[in-house]
Specification:
The protein is built from nine helices and five strands. The chain is α/β, with parallel strands linked by helices. It has a single domain, classed as P-loop containing nucleotide triphosphate hydrolases (Rossmann fold). Bound molecules: adenosine-5'-diphosphate.
Length: 189
C-alpha cells in the first residue's frame, strides 16, 4: 500500500495530475476541496458551516477539516492506497494525518510538491475562470487563497522535507512530462 500527498498552491495542477495517478495506480482520491464543495452544493450541516469560509478563500478550521477527513478515510478501510489532494494544508493537519495513518498501521510514503510560480498560477486561474465558474476564483478571493497558501500551507513542506518524504517537481511544462516525473518518484523503491 502506497499513500501519497499531491501538494501545491491553487492552480498548480493537482487535479489534473491526480486524475492520471488514480488511473495509473488505483488510488482512492481524497480531495478536501471536492468534499467541501459536495457538502456546500448539497447544503448539508457541514456545508452550511463552511460555505462562507470557502467562498472568502480562507482555510476551513483544522478541527472541521480533520474530522471530515477521518470520516472519509474510515469509509474506505480496504483502499489499496490513498492520494491526498488539498490536504494537509497546515502543519496541524499533517501531524493529524500521520497519527491517523500510524494508528491504522500505515504511513504517508510520498509527498509530491508541484512547483509553480505565483505569476504562472495567476495566469492559469484567470484562464480557468473563462471555462469553469468557481466562486472562489474571483480576484479578491483568489488573492486570499494565495495568501493562505504562502502564509500557512507552505510550512507543511519543511515538515515533510525533514523526514525525507518530500519530492519537488517542476509543475510548469507539458502535462505528460510532469506526470512522468511524478511516476518516477512513486515507482522508486
Ligand atoms: P485550490 O484551488 O485553492 O487548491 P481546493 O479545491 O483544494 O482549492 O479548496 C477549495 C477551498 O476549500 C479552500 O480555499 C478552503 O477554503 C477549503 N479547503 C480545502 N481543503 C482544505 C484544507 N485541507 N484545510 C482547510 N481548508 C480547506
Amino acid at each position: 500500500m502506497i499513500n501519497a500527498v499531491i501538494f501545491g498552491p491553487p492552480g498548480a495542477g493537482k487535479g489534473t495530475q491526480s486524475d492520471r495517478l488514480i488511473k495509473k495506480y488505483g488510488f482512492i482520491h481524497i480531495s478536501t476541496g471536492d468534499l467541501f464543495r459536495w457538502h456546500t452544493k448539497n447544503d448539508t450541516p457541514l456545508g452550511k458551516k463552511v460555505k462562507e469560509i470557502m467562498n472568502s478563500g480562507a482555510l476551513v478550521p483544522d478541527e472541521i477539516t480533520i474530522a471530515m477527513l477521518k470520516e472519509e478515510l474510515q469509509k474506505n478501510p480496504h483502499a489499496k492506497g490513498f492520494l491526498f489532494d488539498g490536504f494537509p494544508r497546515t502543519v496541524a493537519q499533517a501531524e493529524a494525518l500521520d497519527k491517523f495513518m500510524k494508528e491504522n498501521g500505515t504511513a504517508i510514503h510520498h509527498v509530491i510538491a508541484l512547483d509553480v510560480s505565483e505569476a504562472e498560477l495567476r495566469a492559469r486561474i484567470a484562464k480557468r475562470r473563462t471555462i469553469e465558474n468557481r466562486a472562489d476564483d474571483e480576484d479578491e478571493k483568489l488573492n486570499k487563497r494565495i495568501t493562505e497558501y504562502f502564509g500557512k500551507t507552505i510550512h507543511v513542506l519543511p515538515y515533510y522535507q525533514k523526514q525525507n518524504r518530500l519530492s519537488t517537481i517542476n509543475g510548469v511544462g507539458e502535462i505528460d512530462r510532469i506526470a512522468n516525473d511524478i511516476a518516477a518518484v512513486l515507482d522508486k523503491k
